[in-house]
Design a protein that fits this description.
The complex is a heterodimer of chains A (114) and B (112). Chain A has 114 residues and is an all-beta fold. Chain A has no helices and twelve strands. In chain B, strands 2, 4, 5, 6, 9, 10 and 11 form a seven-stranded mixed β-sheet that branches. In chain B, strands 1-3-8-7 form a four-stranded antiparallel β-sheet, with no helix packed on it. Classes of the chains: A mainly beta (114), B mainly beta (112).
């Protein structure tokens, strides 16, 4: 069965530090990849997505992610985090085509201190 | 811009009771999804519809769970004979075909 692994359960950073959150999936075929964010008290929001094309995708709020097919990875990055980035981050994948069931990782809680 | 809405936002029920949740998708979206999320976990897929047709159901969706989307607009998720293990956040999402999913705020169910 397909699965998604997020390596870090809880990440603590100071403002202006760089961020990289790991995500690996297990599926050898075509995938669509997503990062969602959940700010405290809010619902899941789409941060960025990859369907095809340039493996480096840019999302909202200065986030980007790189799809490395050979490593089955889709890591999330931000060069300089802000206190307002404190949230839970979920990596998700659906296989073969978009618009089908999403498989989520367990999430990474990011705490940014000012 | 009206997003996905869910009702109620919170539900407390006693074990053995039936509960029903409602989801209203983004109006132009023809796909609607249900997920369940427990503490410390990512959302887990339950089922999804394209218009009124239920296209896929997870093995997580036991016989006590049933979902409908009768006119291809809003959807309901019913849980019969609730158990304490059903306590979770129930999330609804919608999308166009072959596109990303947008999530609602969820219904938090507590079974006592």
């Amino acid at each position: 069965a397909q699965s998604v692994s997020q390596h870090n359960h809880h990440v603590i950073l100071s403002e202006a530090a760089s961020l990289e959150l790991g995500c690996n999936y297990s599926y050898g075929g075509t995938v669509n990849l997503f990062w969602y964010v959940q700010y405290p008290g809010q619902h899941l929001q789409l941060l960025l997505k990859y369907f095809s094309g340039d493996p480096l995708v840019k999302g909202i709020k200065g986030f980007e992610a790189e799809f490395i097919k050979s490593k089955f990875s889709f890591n999330l990055r931000k060069p300089s985090v802000q206190w307002s980035d404190t949230a839970e981050y979920f990596c998700a994948v659906n296989v073969n085509q978009a618009g089908t069931a999403l498989i989520f990782g367990k999430g990474t809680t990011l705490s940014v201190s000012s | 811009d009206t997003g996905v809405s869910q009702d109620p936002r919170h539900k407390i029920t006693k074990r053995g009771q039936n509960v029903t949740f409602r989801c209203d998708p983004i109006s132009e979206h023809n796909r609607l999804y249900w997920y369940r999320q427990t503490l410390g976990q990512g959302p887990e897929f339950l089922t999804y519809f394209q218009n009124e047709a239920q296209l896929e159901k997870s093995r997580l969706l036991s016989d006590r769970f049933s979902a409908e989307r009768p006119k291809g607009s809003f959807s309901t998720l019913e849980i019969q004979r609730t158990e304490q293990g059903d306590s979770a956040m129930y999330l609804c999402a919608s999308s166009s075909v072959l596109a990303e999913q947008y999530f609602g705020p969820g219904t938090r169910l507590t079974v006592t």
